Amino acid sequence: MGLTICTEAWRALTKKVWRAEEIKASQGEGIKMTYLSPDGEENYPGNLKVTLLYLLNENNELFIQYLATADKKTVVSLTNHNYYNLTGCKENVLNHVLQIEADHITELGEHQIPTGKYISVAGTPFDFNRPRLIGENIKEVEGGYDHNFVLKNHNKQVRQAAVLSDAACGRKIEFMTDSPGIQLYTSNGMQGVAGRNGITYNQYWGVCLETQMFPDTPNKPSFPSCVLNPGEEFVNRTVLKLGLI
To answer: What residue ranges define each of the domains in the chain, with the CATH number in brackets?
Structure first.
Protein backbone atom coordinates (compact mmCIF):
# COMPACT_ATOMS: atom_id res chain seq x y z
CA MET A 1 0.00 0.00 0.00
CA GLY A 2 3.02 2.29 0.20
CA LEU A 3 4.00 4.68 2.96
CA THR A 4 0.72 6.61 3.07
CA ILE A 5 -2.91 6.42 2.04
CA CYS A 6 -4.34 9.61 0.55
CA THR A 7 -6.92 10.80 -1.97
CA GLU A 8 -5.13 9.14 -4.89
CA ALA A 9 -5.36 5.52 -3.74
CA TRP A 10 -5.88 3.59 -6.95
CA ARG A 11 -9.14 2.02 -5.73
CA ALA A 12 -10.31 5.09 -3.82
CA LEU A 13 -13.99 5.90 -3.38
CA THR A 14 -13.63 8.61 -6.04
CA LYS A 15 -13.14 5.83 -8.59
CA LYS A 16 -16.15 3.74 -7.58
CA VAL A 17 -19.60 3.60 -9.16
CA TRP A 18 -22.11 4.96 -6.63
CA ARG A 19 -25.86 4.46 -6.55
CA ALA A 20 -27.51 7.87 -7.03
CA GLU A 21 -31.01 9.30 -6.65
CA GLU A 22 -32.58 12.75 -6.64
CA ILE A 23 -33.97 13.87 -3.28
CA LYS A 24 -35.74 16.75 -1.56
CA ALA A 25 -34.84 17.56 2.04
CA SER A 26 -35.24 20.39 4.54
CA GLN A 27 -31.82 21.77 3.52
CA GLY A 28 -32.67 21.82 -0.19
CA GLU A 29 -32.89 19.66 -3.29
CA GLY A 30 -30.13 17.60 -4.79
CA ILE A 31 -28.61 14.16 -5.03
CA LYS A 32 -28.07 11.29 -2.61
CA MET A 33 -25.29 8.82 -3.39
CA THR A 34 -24.53 5.57 -1.60
CA TYR A 35 -21.72 3.03 -1.78
CA LEU A 36 -20.95 -0.13 0.18
CA SER A 37 -17.23 -0.73 0.59
CA PRO A 38 -16.82 -4.46 1.30
CA ASP A 39 -14.79 -5.82 4.18
CA GLY A 40 -11.10 -5.75 3.23
CA GLU A 41 -11.34 -3.27 0.37
CA GLU A 42 -8.14 -1.16 0.35
CA ASN A 43 -7.18 -3.34 3.37
CA TYR A 44 -9.70 -1.60 5.63
CA PRO A 45 -11.69 -3.82 8.02
CA GLY A 46 -15.48 -3.98 7.96
CA ASN A 47 -18.28 -3.44 5.50
CA LEU A 48 -18.51 0.35 5.27
CA LYS A 49 -21.77 1.93 4.12
CA VAL A 50 -21.23 5.49 2.90
CA THR A 51 -23.93 8.05 2.10
CA LEU A 52 -23.14 11.37 0.42
CA LEU A 53 -25.60 14.24 0.07
CA TYR A 54 -25.28 17.31 -2.15
CA LEU A 55 -28.18 19.72 -1.58
CA LEU A 56 -28.72 23.23 -2.98
CA ASN A 57 -31.34 25.68 -1.71
CA GLU A 58 -32.74 29.05 -2.74
CA ASN A 59 -30.46 30.84 -0.26
CA ASN A 60 -27.47 29.92 -2.45
CA GLU A 61 -26.27 27.37 0.11
CA LEU A 62 -24.72 24.07 -0.93
CA PHE A 63 -24.92 21.37 1.75
CA ILE A 64 -22.36 18.56 1.55
CA GLN A 65 -22.80 15.74 4.05
CA TYR A 66 -20.94 12.45 4.48
CA LEU A 67 -22.38 9.66 6.62
CA ALA A 68 -20.75 6.29 7.25
CA THR A 69 -21.38 3.18 9.35
CA ALA A 70 -19.39 -0.05 9.65
CA ASP A 71 -19.86 -3.54 11.10
CA LYS A 72 -16.25 -3.73 12.36
CA LYS A 73 -13.95 -1.28 14.07
CA THR A 74 -12.30 0.78 11.34
CA VAL A 75 -11.02 4.28 10.53
CA VAL A 76 -12.90 6.80 8.39
CA SER A 77 -12.01 10.28 7.15
CA LEU A 78 -14.08 11.49 4.19
CA THR A 79 -14.03 14.84 2.41
CA ASN A 80 -13.91 16.28 -1.11
CA HIS A 81 -11.11 17.73 -3.21
CA ASN A 82 -13.00 20.56 -4.93
CA TYR A 83 -10.95 23.28 -6.61
CA TYR A 84 -12.25 26.86 -6.49
CA ASN A 85 -11.47 29.77 -8.80
CA LEU A 86 -13.95 32.62 -8.41
CA THR A 87 -12.79 34.39 -11.58
CA GLY A 88 -14.05 31.57 -13.78
CA CYS A 89 -10.40 30.62 -14.40
CA LYS A 90 -9.61 33.91 -16.14
CA GLU A 91 -6.52 34.08 -13.91
CA ASN A 92 -4.92 32.21 -11.01
CA VAL A 93 -6.09 32.44 -7.40
CA LEU A 94 -3.19 34.42 -5.93
CA ASN A 95 -5.37 37.55 -5.83
CA HIS A 96 -8.19 35.75 -4.05
CA VAL A 97 -8.66 36.93 -0.47
CA LEU A 98 -8.78 34.18 2.16
CA GLN A 99 -9.70 34.15 5.82
CA ILE A 100 -9.42 30.99 7.96
CA GLU A 101 -10.61 30.58 11.56
CA ALA A 102 -7.43 28.91 12.82
CA ASP A 103 -4.67 29.78 15.28
CA HIS A 104 -2.61 26.65 14.54
CA ILE A 105 -1.60 24.25 11.78
CA THR A 106 -0.45 20.66 12.18
CA GLU A 107 3.34 20.40 11.90
CA LEU A 108 4.65 18.39 8.95
CA GLY A 109 7.59 16.02 9.06
CA GLU A 110 9.14 13.54 6.65
CA HIS A 111 7.04 12.71 3.57
CA GLN A 112 4.67 15.56 4.51
CA ILE A 113 3.24 13.43 7.33
CA PRO A 114 2.13 15.32 10.48
CA THR A 115 4.35 14.94 13.52
CA GLY A 116 1.46 15.17 15.97
CA LYS A 117 2.43 18.68 17.09
CA TYR A 118 0.59 21.96 16.55
CA ILE A 119 2.33 25.13 15.36
CA SER A 120 1.03 28.64 16.04
CA VAL A 121 0.32 30.62 12.88
CA ALA A 122 1.01 33.96 14.57
CA GLY A 123 3.57 35.96 12.62
CA THR A 124 3.86 33.33 9.86
CA PRO A 125 2.60 33.02 6.25
CA PHE A 126 -0.09 30.69 7.65
CA ASP A 127 -1.92 33.39 9.60
CA PHE A 128 -5.19 33.93 7.76
CA ASN A 129 -7.14 35.09 10.80
CA ARG A 130 -7.37 38.45 9.07
CA PRO A 131 -8.44 38.33 5.41
CA ARG A 132 -5.49 38.63 3.03
CA LEU A 133 -4.37 37.64 -0.45
CA ILE A 134 -3.44 34.00 -0.95
CA GLY A 135 -0.38 35.15 -2.89
CA GLU A 136 0.79 37.65 -0.26
CA ASN A 137 3.29 35.28 1.37
CA ILE A 138 3.03 32.10 -0.70
CA LYS A 139 6.64 32.34 -1.90
CA GLU A 140 7.73 32.01 1.73
CA VAL A 141 6.08 28.57 1.92
CA GLU A 142 8.24 25.90 0.32
CA GLY A 143 6.23 24.26 -2.44
CA GLY A 144 3.16 26.41 -1.77
CA TYR A 145 0.30 25.84 0.64
CA ASP A 146 -0.66 22.22 1.34
CA HIS A 147 -1.36 22.31 5.05
CA ASN A 148 -4.02 21.33 7.57
CA PHE A 149 -5.39 24.21 9.65
CA VAL A 150 -6.72 23.46 13.14
CA LEU A 151 -10.11 25.15 13.21
CA LYS A 152 -11.24 27.04 16.29
CA ASN A 153 -14.19 26.03 18.46
CA HIS A 154 -14.41 22.39 17.44
CA ASN A 155 -17.43 20.92 19.22
CA LYS A 156 -18.88 18.85 16.34
CA GLN A 157 -21.31 21.67 15.53
CA VAL A 158 -21.36 23.49 12.20
CA ARG A 159 -19.59 26.85 12.51
CA GLN A 160 -17.77 29.23 10.18
CA ALA A 161 -14.38 27.96 9.04
CA ALA A 162 -13.24 30.16 6.16
CA VAL A 163 -14.22 32.84 3.65
CA LEU A 164 -12.85 33.00 0.10
CA SER A 165 -13.48 36.08 -2.06
CA ASP A 166 -12.25 37.92 -5.14
CA ALA A 167 -12.64 41.69 -5.40
CA ALA A 168 -12.35 41.79 -9.19
CA CYS A 169 -15.36 39.56 -9.83
CA GLY A 170 -17.19 40.40 -6.59
CA ARG A 171 -17.86 36.78 -5.63
CA LYS A 172 -17.34 35.04 -2.30
CA ILE A 173 -17.84 31.65 -0.64
CA GLU A 174 -18.32 31.15 3.09
CA PHE A 175 -17.25 27.71 4.35
CA MET A 176 -18.99 26.26 7.41
CA THR A 177 -18.31 22.82 8.87
CA ASP A 178 -18.42 20.56 11.91
CA SER A 179 -14.96 19.15 11.09
CA PRO A 180 -11.89 19.88 13.25
CA GLY A 181 -9.64 20.84 10.33
CA ILE A 182 -9.47 22.34 6.87
CA GLN A 183 -6.76 21.61 4.30
CA LEU A 184 -5.52 24.56 2.25
CA TYR A 185 -4.01 23.47 -1.06
CA THR A 186 -3.06 25.90 -3.82
CA SER A 187 -2.70 23.45 -6.75
CA ASN A 188 1.06 23.73 -6.50
CA GLY A 189 1.83 20.88 -8.87
CA MET A 190 -0.81 21.62 -11.48
CA GLN A 191 0.67 22.15 -14.92
CA GLY A 192 -0.83 21.93 -18.39
CA VAL A 193 -4.15 20.39 -17.37
CA ALA A 194 -6.79 20.74 -20.09
CA GLY A 195 -9.85 22.55 -18.72
CA ARG A 196 -13.20 23.67 -20.04
CA ASN A 197 -13.64 26.16 -22.88
CA GLY A 198 -10.07 25.67 -24.08
CA ILE A 199 -8.53 26.89 -20.81
CA THR A 200 -5.32 25.26 -19.57
CA TYR A 201 -4.95 24.97 -15.80
CA ASN A 202 -1.49 25.68 -14.42
CA GLN A 203 0.09 26.26 -11.01
CA TYR A 204 -2.09 28.19 -8.54
CA TRP A 205 -5.07 27.99 -10.92
CA GLY A 206 -7.34 26.67 -8.18
CA VAL A 207 -7.52 26.53 -4.41
CA CYS A 208 -8.83 23.64 -2.33
CA LEU A 209 -10.38 24.10 1.10
CA GLU A 210 -11.06 20.58 2.34
CA THR A 211 -13.01 20.21 5.59
CA GLN A 212 -11.58 17.13 7.26
CA MET A 213 -10.19 15.09 10.10
CA PHE A 214 -6.47 15.78 10.51
CA PRO A 215 -4.13 13.82 8.18
CA ASP A 216 -2.60 10.71 9.79
CA THR A 217 -5.14 10.91 12.61
CA PRO A 218 -5.14 7.11 13.22
CA ASN A 219 -1.46 7.28 14.20
CA LYS A 220 -1.58 10.46 16.29
CA PRO A 221 -3.21 10.11 19.75
CA SER A 222 -3.13 13.91 20.17
CA PHE A 223 -5.45 14.39 17.16
CA PRO A 224 -9.26 14.05 17.17
CA SER A 225 -10.07 10.39 16.60
CA CYS A 226 -11.40 9.01 13.31
CA VAL A 227 -12.01 5.52 14.71
CA LEU A 228 -15.49 4.25 13.82
CA ASN A 229 -16.96 1.44 15.91
CA PRO A 230 -20.01 -0.69 15.08
CA GLY A 231 -23.16 1.15 16.14
CA GLU A 232 -21.53 4.57 15.64
CA GLU A 233 -21.90 6.96 12.71
CA PHE A 234 -19.22 9.05 11.03
CA VAL A 235 -20.53 12.50 10.05
CA ASN A 236 -18.89 15.30 8.09
CA ARG A 237 -21.14 18.28 7.35
CA THR A 238 -20.08 21.26 5.25
CA VAL A 239 -22.07 24.24 4.03
CA LEU A 240 -20.88 26.50 1.22
CA LYS A 241 -22.75 29.80 1.15
CA LEU A 242 -22.32 31.55 -2.19
CA GLY A 243 -22.68 35.32 -2.36
CA LEU A 244 -21.39 38.70 -3.44
CA ILE A 245 -18.95 40.97 -1.65
So the answer is: 13-244 (2.70.98.10)
